[in-house]
Design goal:
With 819 residues, the protein is α+β, with helices and mostly antiparallel strands. The protein is built from 27 helices and 28 strands. The strands form ten sheets. It has a seven-stranded mixed beta sheet with strand order 11-10-12-13-25-24-21. Strands 5-4-8-9 form a four-stranded mixed beta sheet, covered by helices on one side. Strand 26 and strand 27 form a beta hairpin. The chain is elongated, with a radius of gyration of 34 Å. 41% of the residues are buried.
Length: 819
């Protein structure tokens, strides 16, 4: 009998033209919103994704589903057929289920023509076919489940009311409360556990999960609970009209018991759940190290994200990705993580100014964007792409916008999305480590290394998450070396004694982490300042580290690289082009001895890293050492050559237009990461003089890491020559550009002092799926008309076929019998 009711429900809806009119209006609005109106158009968004469609459709369903269900039971009662159905051998349960599946099928048929959108995106993607079909199909499945909840609520409203119009209005109100009412109520409450619990009682929270293409057991259970609850209440209402008052009370207690049971089951499901990520690149699947870090949070963490408000489409995508990630984090944090989004540019002028000053004190400066409006005009917009994590005692700032300079805005934003999981997990782990004791980082001194002013920004930045200080290798004892987690040797200029080298070897044999940045030649741009024809003779430095590093597997070559991909320096116009720090009447010229290193390696330390500013960088070679793995992480460009000492350089190198053919060569290695159990440089040797109480070092040490880069100034911050103030590490005061030197240092120490699986999160890849702008420019109107008209044409064709079939059937029934 369920099947009979099911067929009757579908036939009754489509036998009247009003059914086609409602679905046609739904398809027309979807077509206009998703393909025509610029503020919500998929074309305006620029991505081969149906995210705008799944964001807007729930609001259209607030009208479509009640229009489908309003006649299901209220219409039967108005027509007087409900009592007739209840006198037939049809159980009330079969009647409800037949009506439910019939209405759900009508919705399915209404949404089916929108698959035309998938076909369009498949053809408009760059390249064609660059769409996430798995994620789209998962989102459609989530939309069907979401609509099933609305259908059940609509049937309850139809059972509750005696007339069709009240049933429609009650259903719209009920669906609106289910979808956004709980979320709006939680927004009025202070952020906390209760606010989050109330938000999770709404359908919007769970639909956001399913609409991403993720089948989450908690959301599936939630929608099944909503469906069962409203179908049960509709069933009990129909029964209550035929039962005495005493039995009606028992039905009420039954419904109340079911509500309590469903609430308890859904609450328990938050502790034991499973997820199936249907997206092709598994973008919503957290790594094991992330889940482990979230479960191990020692206390409550509050996350405030300032990326909010009216954002450009690509930044809106970054905001959505941040929201989705934090929502997934919250699921695994066992109630210890909460998040909310704030718009610092909202409110009156005084409030905005107060917010600006407060954020500036935290060194959170806005990004100024040039945003193109739909009419083609440009306007400036400030955006704060930051998140602040706080546990009450400490704060961590997460820079959401991290990507390579020089890339397109879409590529940069996509790289930022790929780095989100690493950025947040790294910050959370640093907050946890602060309570257990921060790792200790030492910068060596007394060998002519970079001074405190030149390392000021590096030390300050690291001190936020590490214990950082200067280390005198001649004075430190072995107990002091044992306490160090990492040691940085930054541009020494004086020779290392055998006793100091022994201590370095001891540090490596105990499993230490060593960062070495060396200049094998004495190059410096400052020596050319003041005279147009000044010349500097580049000579070799004797640091006495070659044998030690050669044992570990790396050799610093005595050369300097001249690279056509380089920084520019200011020169005074004239015959000689005198170098100057003054900014009046300057001409910027490329200086090949200051190469810009663009990372091309996929190693997580440098993946998606911007260009790195270097000065007088040399090349290096690696030596095969048993048990040591090597990763060359930085190379020069293919347009570089080596200059061997002694070599004289002058500013003419910047003025003379070079021939690219003279510079073309294979890229040269400039930085390498070595990992494993290193051999001791002092094996089978007695400790040198000056080492007291030391035993012979082992032939093989504990697993350790060595990062070597052939530029001593890569971690040096520039200074203002006028007042001596310090610029941020990686900032070039001549061109006013920020390079990735600071990020390189932070990534290195994250890799060396934390679980390598954390920084491996930087290897996460999310495929960039863009629309073909060139094709859209030529065929935009055609595709817009196609996506608006074809779904409606399919509906009209289905109606015409159904009308023809009905006409032939009834004509056959009324045809006179020849017998």
């Amino acid at each position: 009998m369920i099947f009979s009711i099911y067929k009757k429900e579908i036939a009754g809806y489509f036998n009247a033209w009003t059914g086609y009119l409602v679905i046609g209006l739904f398809l027309l609005l979807n077509g206009l919103l998703n393909w025509i109106f610029p503020d919500t158009s998929i074309i305006t968004q620029g991505y081969a994704s149906l995210d705008p469609f799944f964001s807007l459709t729930p609001y259209l369903l607030l009208l479509l589903v009640p229009a489908i269900t309003m006649r299901s039971l209220a219409g039967e009662r108005t027509d007087g057929t409900l009592e007739w159905l209840q006198t037939r051998p049809v159980s009330t349960g079969a009647l409800i289920l037949g009506k439910f599946f019939g209405s759900l099928t009508i919705f399915f048929l209404a949404i089916l023509p929108t698959l035309i959108y998938v076909y369009s995106l498949y053809n408009l993607a760059l390249p064609a076919g660059n769409v996430d079909l798995g994620g789209m199909m998962g989102s459609y499945l989530g939309l069907l489940l979401f609509a099933a909840g609305f259908v059940a609520a609509g049937l309850f409203a139809s059972a509750l009311c005696k007339q069709v119009i009240p049933a429609f209005l009650v259903a719209v109100t009920l669906c609106l409360i289910l979808y956004s009412g709980f979320g709006d109520l939680s927004g009025l409450m202070a952020p906390g556990k209760w606010a989050e619990t109330i938000r999770m009682m709404g359908m919007s929270y769970h639909f956001e999960v399913l609409a991403r293409g993720v089948l989450d057991s908690r959301s599936l259970l939630y929608f099944l609970s909503v469906i069962c609850l409203f179908l049960l209440m509709a069933h009990r209402i129909l029964l209550a009209r035929r039962l005495p008052q005493r039995q009606v009370r028992s039905l009420g207690f039954q419904v109340l018991s079911v509500i309590i049971a469903l609430f308890a089951i859904n609450y328990a499901s938050n502790k034991w759940f499973a997820r199936l990520d249907l997206t092709q690149d598994q973008r919503y699947t957290l790594s094991p190290i992330s889940k482990q870090s979230l479960k191990a949070l020692p206390g409550d963490v509050e996350v405030t994200v300032f990326l909010e408000g009216s954002l450009p489409p690509n930044f809106q995508r970054l905001r959505t990705a941040t929201h989705d990630l934090l929502s997934d984090f919250q699921s695994h944090a066992r109630g210890h993580l909460r998040y909310h989004f704030l718009n610092p540019l909202s409110g009156n002028e005084q409030q905005r100014e107060t917010n600006r000053i407060t954020l500036a004190e935290r060194h959170l400066d806005p990004v100024n964007l040039s945003v193109r409006k739909p009419d083609g005009s440009l306007h400036q917009q400030l955006v704060y792409p930051y998140a602040v994590l706080s546990n009450g005692n400490e704060e961590q700032v997460v820079h959401l916008l991290q990507g390579q300079q020089g890339e397109s805005p879409e590529t940069t934003l996509n790289q930022a999305i790929e780095n989100l999981e690493y950025a947040f997990i790294s910050a959370l782990r640093k907050m946890g480590r602060a309570e257990q004791g921060k790792p200790i980082i030492g910068f060596t001194e007394d060998h002519g290394e970079l001074n405190d002013a030149e390392l000021q920004d590096a030390i300050y930045t690291l001190s936020l998450n590490y214990q950082v200080g200067r280390i005198d290798l001649q004075a430190i004892d072995f107990d002091g070396l044992d306490r160090l987690d990492a040691l940085v040797i930054a541009r020494p200029t004086q020779s290392f004694s055998e006793a100091v080298k022994y201590k370095l070897d001891y540090f490596m044999m105990r499993g230490g982490n060593l960062i070495v940045s060396l200049d094998q030649l004495n190059g410096s741009l400052d020596s050319l300042r003041g005279s147009a024809d000044a010349t500097q003779l580049l000579l070799s430095r004797e640091l006495n580290l070659d044998d030690l590093l050669f044992t570990y597997g790396v050799r610093f070559n005595y050369d300097v690289i001249a690279d056509l991909h380089c920084l520019q320096i200011p020169l005074q116009p004239g015959t000689g082009g005198q170098l100057s720090a003054q900014y009046s009447q300057l001409q910027f010229m490329p200086w090949p001895l200051h190469p810009l290193i663009v990372p091309v390696s996929e190693h997580p330390i440098v993946k998606n890293l911007g260009s790195i500013m270097t000065t007088y960088i040399g090349s290096l070679d690696t030596i095969a050492v048993q048990g040591i793995t090597k990763n060359i992480v930085l190379y020069s460009s293919p347009f570089a050559r080596s200059l061997q000492p002694p070599v004289a350089v002058s500013l003419a190198l910047a003025q003379d237009l070079p021939d690219p053919a003279d510079f073309r060569s294979p890229p040269k290695a400039v930085a390498v990461l070595l990992e494993g159990s290193f051999s001791s440089a002092f094996r089978n040797r007695m400790p040198p003089e000056g080492i007291a109480g030391a035993s012979t070092l082992p032939d093989k040490g504990n697993p350790a890491r060595l990062f070597a880069i052939s530029d001593g100034d890569v971690f040096r911050n520039q200074q203002n020559p006028g007042d001596g103030s310090v610029y941020p590490l990686g900032w070039d005061r001549y061109t006013n550009q920020q390079y990735a030197n600071k990020t390189l240092l932070l990534n290195l120490l994250d890799y060396m002092t934390d679980d390598p699986a954390v920084i491996a999160l930087r290897n996460k890849e999310i495929k960039l799926r863009l629309l073909d702008r060139l094709r859209l420019g030529e065929q935009q109107t055609r595709w817009q008309l196609f996506n608006v008209a074809v779904p409606i044409a399919c509906l009209l064709l289905a109606g015409w076929l159904q009308y023809g079939i009905r006409r032939r059937r009834y004509a056959r029934m009324h045809r006179p019998n020849p017998n």
